Amino acid sequence: MSQMLFTYDTELTLRAAMVLVNTDRVDGERLTGQPALNAYLDEFGWTGRRDRDDAEVAAVRALRGRLGGIWSVADDEEEAVRLVNALLSDTRAAPWLTRHPEMPDWHLHLASVDDPLAQRMGAEMAMALADLIRGGELRRLKTCAAPDCTAVLTDLSRNRSRIFCDTGNCGNRQHVAAYRKRRRAE
Predict the structure, then answer these.
(1) The domain containing residue 112 runs over which residues?
(2) Does 162 fall in a domain?
(3) Does residue 120 sit within a domain?
(4) Does 169 reside within a domain?
(5) What is the DSSP track for the chain?
(6) Residue 133 domain-assigned?
(7) CA atoms of 164 and 145, how far apart (whole Å)
(8) What is the CATH number of the domain that holds 89?
(9) I want to staple 144 with a disulfide (CB 3.0 to 4.6 A). Which of 15, 127, 139, 165 is the partner?
(10) Torsions phi, psi of 90, nearest 5?
(11) Number of domains in the chain
């Protein structure tokens, strides 16, 4: 079993942010409407208000763009901090501790369950990114090293050695290509 680097809810939220960003980076647009959004929300256990309309999908797509912008500047700490602070401010994040029967450990919520979905998601994701920055771990936000992939990844490995995403079998494809190249050279 791997040791967690951050709290469970921080790691879960970082993964949720990464998956959201990747919904338009691999195989075209995958956040195609309410059914796709609902599947994503259910996968990560998002609770609270859901309007279930086109405006909500559009707001989550806009959030996706902002999060992708943070990944794209992960090598510039000052700019990443500026973008995370702007997201925290725009979502009016207001932290409070809570727990649920399905998650009995105390964890933070950063917006009311009645706030719009994209606002709640943005606040939670911005706080998870803030935890990453506070821990000096911003370099864990990466873009896949495969030359034909633009997916993002959150490297939660102990030694920060992950370089390939897990959306398109990129690591395996690159290793097979390197193997074949070595075989041809022999």
Answers:
(1) 8-141
(2) no
(3) yes
(4) no
(5) -PPPSS-HHHHHHHHHHHHHHGGGTSSS----SHHHHHHHHHHHT--S----SHHHHHHHHHHHHHHHHHHHTTT-HHHHHHHHHHHHHHTT---EEEEETTEEEEEEE-S-TTS-HHHHHHHHHHHHHHHHHHTT-GGGEEE--STT---EEE--STTS---S-SSS-HHHHHHHHHHHHHHHH-
(6) yes
(7) 6
(8) 1.10.3300.10
(9) 165
(10) -65, -30
(11) 1
- Answer positive or negative: Cα dihedral of 49, 50, 51, 55: positive
Q: Which residue from 112, 62, 113 is spatially nearest to 87, judged by alpha carbons? A: 62
Is the pLDDT at 49 greater than 80? The verdict is yes
Token reading at 130: 């803030």
Residue with tokens 């193997």: 179
* Total Cβ atoms within 10 A of residue 21: 27
pLDDT digits (tens, 9 = 90+) for 135-146: 999 999 999 999
Structure token digits, residue 161: 């050695």
Instruction: Take residue 85 and report the two structure tokens written for it.
Output: 């602070």
Decide which of 74 and 103 is more confident: 74
Return the CA Rg of the chain: 18
Alpha carbons 165 and 173: distance in angstroms, whole number: 11
